[in-house]
Amino acid sequence: MGRSGTATVTTPPINQWKTLDKDLKRIGRIEEAAQFVAKPLVAPGLSIAFIVLAALAAGVLMGAQPGAWIVIGAAAIGAYMALNIGANDVANNMGPAVGANALTLGGALLIAAIFETSGALLAGGDVVKTVSTGILAPDAVPDAAHFVWAMMSALLASALWLHLATWMGAPVSTTHSIVGGVVGAGIAAAGFAAVNWGAIGKIAASWVISPVMGGLIAAAFLALIKAKVIYVEDKIAAARRWVPGLIGIMTGAFATYLAIKGLKRIIHVEPFSAVMIGLVLGLAAWALAVPLVRRQSRDMENRKKSLKKLFTLPLVVSAALLSFAHGANDVANAVGPLAAIVHAVEAGELADNVTVPLWVMVVGALGISVGLMLFGPRLIQLVGSEITKLNAMRAFCVALSAAITVIVASWLGLPVSSTHIAVGGVFGVGFYREWHSERRSRMLGLQKGKPVPPEERSRRLLVRRAHMTTVAAAWVITVPASALLSGLLFLMLNALAG
């Protein structure tokens, strides 16, 4: 009120910043759009940066030696191969644990990166055959130059095939991919007689043996858990009796597996000694697990959901150990041909076995971890949750199956793929659940006088058939596809070099 008693009318302030606010909003939308567009380019950009760094490191280490540019190119291709191994193959180790919610995706990526790198650097093969599995003998190739182009073609072809398989969402065997690449380049360089076709026949047989064996063993353990623990009246008492034994079997299997397949660089262990190591550590793990499971199950509700907690920690440990063993073994798929190229360039001669330089091992180890972090989540989710629904018990059976199958196959002299075993284990668990669910439904239907109609049984399918078809097709064509691509690349590189 003014002094005269009349009211003073105040005019609301005019928004003098209206135009500026509109411009800022437009800029904000442009920034959001730019981030949206740039996000898919981050992973490829980081991958290219890693490949360039690997090539630069090779250039610095090689200096002005004759043929240094060949090693630089091979280092770039080896880094690209390692990235694709991490993107595709590691999903088989971590997928079940993520699908069972025992690990978050971020936790799985971190654990896998640590153990893959540790396995590659600590237990990676000190001496690697120049051609992975003896598919192509160096003396079958006319000279060192042809051998170098053959190894480079095989490495690039297998990396390109893995890249395509990852893009399609198909977990394939990196070992089979590199073998196919060596076969194709070997045929192009020295004819069909240069290839060990007996070894190729065994690999073709493993397309069936690996997934079937993995699936059967995983299904057998799931059947045991259902019969002895889940479908009994006192589930907690049954778990206290059986879970420590299963943990002991897991520990013994992984100890034997690592002794046979993953510790070659540290110490050579005979198969019998490896089994004894596994037996001793398995019994020790069982003795330790008895009081731990008893304490963990105290005050636990007598229902199926409670039992899953008892399998979570063993599942995480098994996933980590699988990653360690995978890094120790499959890093050779990236660094084996690269080491052969480095030796051929430096020594000017060919050899059946070559020592892998430390920098080559580092490129392979870091490449697998970088590829996993950048591109692994897609296949981890596919293996863990899109083929069939997994919980801690089912995923534990898959991991246990992977270790046992590799040991049995080693005794029988069968070339098996860890990828095929793990994915086969997931399918085996899913198909067993389908069979068991239909069997129980049929029994309940007979008891009630209401049989389950075919339409209802079809609706209850627990395995996605579309993924099974895609994966099986990718497995079958891995060797011929990488072989054909490798042969074409060899002819191109040889023509350019000539």
TrEMBL record:
The keyword Transmembrane helix applies. It is a multi-pass membrane protein. GO terms for biological process: phosphate ion transmembrane transport. Its main location: membrane. The chain crosses the membrane at residues 41-62, 68-86, 98-124, 144-166, 178-200, 206-230, 242-260, 272-290, 310-328, 358-380, 392-412, 418-435, 466-493. GO terms for cellular component: membrane. Pfam families: PHO4 (PF01384). InterPro entries: Phos_transporter (IPR001204). Keywords: Membrane, Phosphate transport, Transmembrane, Transmembrane helix, Transport. GO terms for molecular function: phosphate transmembrane transporter activity. It comes from the Bacteria. It is found in: Membrane. Belongs to the inorganic phosphate transporter (PiT) (TC 2.A.20) family. This is Phosphate transporter. The lineage of its organism: Bacteria, Pseudomonadati, Pseudomonadota, Alphaproteobacteria, Rhodobacterales.
